[in-house]
Amino acid sequence: MTETGIYIHIPFCKKKCFYCDFNSYTGCESLYYVYTDALKKEIALRKDTLFNTVSSIFIGGGTPNVLSAECIKEILYMIYRYFNVMSDAEITIELNPGLITEERLRIYQEIGINRISIGLQAWQNRLLKKIGRLHTIEDFIENYRISRKYFSNINIDLIYALPGQTFEDWKETLSKVVELKPNHISCYGFILEKDTVFYNLYIKGKLKMPSDDFEIDLFHYTIDFLQKCGYNHYEISNYAINSYECRHNILYWKDMQYIGFGAGAYSFDGDKRTGNIKGIKEYIEMINNKRIAIIEEEQLKKKDKMSEFMFLGLRMMEGVNDREFKHRFSKSMFLVYKDAINKNIDLNLLMREGDRVYLTLKGMDVSNNVFEDFLI
């Protein structure tokens, strides 16, 4: 039976970070319980849209831990009720430091959550303040300490090449995080997104961006340092102790099926991608009145599915295997993408080993340029 994943979106935050363009909103405390009820209704209403075994559940946001643990419990129990969740499924919840309590952690553990992802971003308090985070490094250290009492699988999210961040800042961040021995570390290069506080500052000339060369230097240092510390670099932005790779994200990168619940959540059944309305009130209203919140629907053509399979798969260090491509599309990627593959091999951006192609280090530096060559 084909495995699949479930994503649950919690679109609430106490404060919007200055770099964030995710579908999240502040000042919506009065909607927490109403939204929870709408989520539960959507899960029940869409119970017949997924027949596969669920191998992973990811509760993301926003900031999921602004909701009470009882709300999370009610949502997760609806998933258990209507979907066939594997006994060893990976079940993750994203948490922000400063809002983590021992009582919440205890309940999370009791309801089957077995992996937590903590958004640290930086080790220095001055940087945390500069990017709009509410927590301090002291909050994080205390929260991590109590989290370890309940969870043996913890990811820490970090951002490099932040405005105002020095090389020494990043070295300290990685060093201090590794000392804590998390199972998984995600390191994302800073991206200036439209409609964010940072973007508005930038267009006014009030925000200095780091150079591309500086970002690449930080990226290369990250790979080298974390690999020396025992972390497997298995995807462009992700590092894990062996056997702790994120199953849910791998499902995305391998272009497999998933269903998303909540405002702005997307689903993919292998042929069709659908998206829910983003606004919280609009989502609640549509679920209550129309029994569905989907406003986007795209039937993918074969060429689109092949392209996505390639550029998503190339994000992983193992790259893309022609046997898997043939199994899915009945064609060889070496025929379909002969020119793109050969061009990037010649530029030392791709490497071929037998039936497999994967990004070189130089290719990772300009991965978006490589991916564009597979859009046909």
Describe this structure in words.
This protein has helices at residues 32-45, 69-82, 102-110, 125-130, 137-147, 167-179, 197-203, 212-228, 247-253, 280-290, 302-313, 322-329, 333-336, 338-346, 361-365, 367-372, and strands at residues 3-10, 53-61, 85-95, 115-121, 154-160, 184-189, 232-235, 238-240, 258-261, 266-268, 272-276, 294-299, 320-321, 350-353, 356-359. A nine-stranded mixed sheet has the order 7-8-6-5-4-3-2-1-9, sandwiched between helices. It has a three-stranded antiparallel sheet with strand order 10-11-12, with no helix packed on it. Strands 13-15-14 form a three-stranded antiparallel sheet. The two termini are 31 Å apart. Helix 1 links the parallel strand 1 (3-10) and strand 2. It is an alpha/beta fold. The chain has two domains: 3-253, TIM Barrel (Alpha-Beta Barrel), CATH 3.20.20.70; 318-372, no CATH class. The chain is built from 16 helices and 15 strands. It comes from Aceticella autotrophica. This is Heme chaperone HemW. It is found in: Cytoplasm. Residues 1-226 form the Radical SAM core domain. InterPro entries: Aldolase_TIM, Coproporphyrinogen-III_oxidase, Elp3/MiaA/NifB-like_rSAM, HemN_C, HemW-like, rSAM, rSAM_sf.
